[in-house]
Design brief:
Blueprint lengths: L4 H6 L4 H8 L14 H16 L12 H17 L3 H19 L4 H10 L4 E3 L11 E4 H7 L15 E2 L2 E4 L1 H20 L9 H13 L1 H12 L10 H12 L5 H13 L4 H7 L8 H11 L14 H6 L16 H18 L1
Length: about 350
C-alpha cells in the first residue's frame, strides 16, 4: 500500500509529505510571500487549536490538502520560534492526538506502513486462534521505548501477551503507542533555534500569538513565582516516580526515598507527600508519615536528606532517559532549580 496525498495531509510528519513540501520551495525566506498567506494562516491556526482545545488536538480539514500538508512544517517553525516550552509541548501533543484519532479509523495495512516509517519492528497478527483479538505483534524493545511515559498498569510489560520477544497489541493499543512516537518526533523537530532566522513580520505573528495566550501559558509557570511546587520543572526521573506513586504502581525502596527527599527539598508539605502514596497497595499511613518526616528532618537526628545524584539513580535503573537539560546537570535538585528559573523567565517574557 502506498501512502496517498490525502494520507500526507493527515500525517504531515511522514517522509512523503516532506518531499511534497520541498516542491513548493517553502523556505524561511519565502514565508512573507503573499501567495503563501493561506498556509501561514493555517500554520498559526494549528497552534491556536492546540492551545485552545482540551484535551489539546489539531483539527483535520479534508479537501484542503494543498494547505494542510505544508502548514505543518510552518507551524513547527512558528512554535519553535516561540521559545516557550509550554507552547512547544502542547503543540506536539495536539498533533500527536490528531494522528491518534485519525489512525484509529485506518486499515491495518496503513497503520503498519506508518509504524514502519518510524522503524518499528511490527507485523500483523494472523493464524493463532488464541491471538485473534490482537491486530499487531510489536518487538518488545519498540514497545518499551514508547511506554516510558505511560504509567497505567495496562502498559506494564508483565501485563501484556508476549510470544517470541513480540508484544501482542490491539489496534487501539498500537495507535496509542504511535501517538507517543509521533509526539516525541515532533518535540525533536521543535528543539531548534530558529527565531533569529525568521522574517520580522512572521515573528510578529509568533509574538502576537504568545500575547493572546499569555494568561493560559503563564498559569502553570506563575506557580513558581508564588513559591509553589512546579511539576512542570520535574526532571524525567522524578516525573516518572511521581506518576508511578499517583497511580499506585510499585516503587522500589531507593525510588521512594528519591521521590520523598526530592519533594521535601522543593517545599512540598508532609501531608501532600503522604497522600501521594495512598494509592499504593501496601500503604500504611503511620509508617509512611514517619518515613516522610524522618527524611524531611522533622524526626530523629533532624537531618534533612537530599535525593541521590543522577549517577546513583542511573546505577539503580531509575533514569528513564535524559533530556537536553539532563546532559548539563548532575543532580535532580539542580535540574529543578534551573528549569524553574527558565520557566520564570518565560513568564516574564510573555
Amino acid at each position: 500500500m502506498v501512502l496517498t496525498r490525502s494520507d500526507q495531509a493527515k500525517y504531515p510528519f511522514l517522509l512523503g509529505a516532506a518531499e511534497e513540501v520541498k516542491t513548493l520551495d517553502l523556505g524561511i525566506d519565502s514565508l512573507e510571500n503573499p501567495e503563501l498567506e493561506p498556509i501561514l494562516k493555517r500554520a498559526e491556526n494549528r497552534i491556536e487549536e492546540a492551545l485552545k482545545s482540551s484535551p489539546p488536538e489539531v483539527s483535520y480539514r479534508p479537501r484542503e490538502e494543498d494547505i494542510e500538508t505544508p502548514s505543518f512544517p510552518v507551524a513547527v517553525m512558528l512554535a519553535a520560534a516561540s521559545a516557550n516550552s509550554y507552547i512547544k509541548n502542547r503543540y506536539a501533543l495536539a498533533e500527536a492526538k490528531r494522528a491518534y484519532t485519525l489512525l484509529q479509523a485506518e486499515e491495518k495495512e496503513k497503520i503498519l506502513e506508518i509504524a514502519q516509517v518510524f522503524g518499528w519492528r511490527v507485523k500483523p497478527v494472523r493464524g493463532k486462534a488464541s491471538y485473534r483479538c490482537y491486530g499487531f505483534a510489536l518487538h518488545f524493545a519498540d514497545f518499551l521505548r514508547n511506554t516510558r511515559s505511560l504509567r497505567e498498569k495496562e502498559w506494564k510489560l508483565v501485563n501484556k501477551s508476549i510470544l517470541g520477544g513480540e508484544v501482542y497489541l490491539t489496534q487501539g493499543e498500537a495507535t496509542r503507542l504511535l501517538q507517543e512516537e509521533i509526539r516525541r518526533h515532533i518535540e525533536r523537530k521543535l528543539n531548534i533555534d530558529i527565531r533569529s532566522k525568521l522574517p520580522e513580520r512572521v515573528l510578529e505573528r509568533v509574538d502576537n500569538l504568545k500575547r493572546r495566550h499569555a494568561r493560559q501559558i503563564g498559569e502553570i509557570k506563575f506557580q513558581a513565582l508564588r513559591g509553589a511546587v512546579v511539576n512542570e520543572a520535574f526532571p524525567p526521573c522524578i516525573r516518572q516516580l511521581y506518576e508511578a506513586a499517583k497511580s499506585g504502581s510499585h516503587i522500589s525502596h531507593i525510588g521512594r526515598f528519591t521521590l520523598t527527599s526530592f519533594l521535601t527539598n522543593i517545599g512540598m508539605k508532609t501531608e501532600e507527600i503522604v497522600n501521594l502514596f495512598r494509592s499504593s497497595s501496601d500503604f500504611n499511613e503511620r509508617m509512611t508519615r514517619y518515613q516522610v518526616e524522618h527524611i524531611a528532618g522533622d524526626r530523629g537526628s533532624g537531618t534533612k536528606y537530599k535525593p541521590p545524584t543522577c549517577e546513583t539513580l542511573r546505577t539503580h535503573g531509575l533514569c528513564p532517559g535524559v533530556d537536553d537539560m539532563c546532559r548539563r546537570i548532575r543532580h535532580p535538585l539542580t535540574y529543578y532549580r534551573s528549569k524553574t528559573r527558565m520557566l520564570k523567565k518565560e513568564v516574564s517574557v510573555s
